[in-house]
Amino acid sequence: MIRKTVFSLVSFVLFVHASAGHATARDYDVRDFGAVGDGVTLDTEAIQAAIDKCAAEGGGRVVLAGGRVYLSGGVVLRSNVTLLIDAGSVLRGSLDKDDYPDITPKLPYLYTERFTRQLIYAERERNIGIAGQGTIDGQGFRRTGCSSGTSGT
């Protein structure tokens, strides 16, 4: 009888804990944070605000929806956040280097000093992801002196 009661109690606690985790996860549409998604307006601040709010409230999905093009500089993913890019939507990297924060990774590797600007960055975060059937378009690297549309890599 005691075993059955303990088993039932443990099962109940696990169920409540699992349910609570799903109940707190929600979607954060970047348009609710001011993103325009017209491919011209820089949406970095709105995307980062959605990521930060999502993380602060326990996690969920930050959604780029509506078949729009969201122009962005660098954003930093936080723990328990999934960046969801819906089908038809595009996360497009800005061509302006100044739209990307200069972040030197804390984890040393061969090119630590060389690559300090990223479109999507995370370090020492957990339970993060990038999902969806949309597109991430970094627009490539353009060297000065190359003709228009020529990729430098």
The H-level CATH homologous superfamily, spelled out, is: Single-stranded right-handed beta-helix, Pectin lyase-like
SSE string, helices as H and strands as E: HEEHEEEEEEEE
Rg calculated over all Cα atoms: 20 Å
Number of strand elements: 10
- Overall spatial form: globular
**Order of strands in the sheet with most strands:** 1-3-6-9
Strand content: 15-25%
What composes the largest sheet? 4 strands, parallel
- Estimated structural class: alpha/beta
CATH architecture: 3 Solenoid
Count of helix runs? 2
Mean pLDDT score: 80
Share of helical residues? 10-25%
CATH third-tier fold name: Pectate Lyase C-like
What is the domain total for the residues? 1
Task: Write up this protein.
The protein is α/β, with parallel strands linked by helices and 153 residues long. The chain has helices spanning 2-24, 44-56, and strands at residues 26-29, 38-42, 60-64, 69-72, 75-76, 81-85, 90-93, 120-121, 129-131, 135-137. A four-stranded parallel beta sheet has the order 1-3-6-9. The protein starts with a helix and ends in a 16-residue tail after the last strand. The relative contact order is 0.14.
Describe the structure in brief.
With 153 residues, the protein is of the alpha/beta class. The protein is 24% helix and 24% strand.
Q: What are the SSEs and their pairings?
A:
Elements lengths: L1 H23 L1 E4 L8 E5 L1 H13 L3 E5 L4 E4 L2 E2 L4 E5 L4 E4 L26 E2 L7 E3 L3 E3 L16
Parallel strand pairs: 1-3, 2-4, 3-6, 4-7, 5-8, 6-9, 7-10
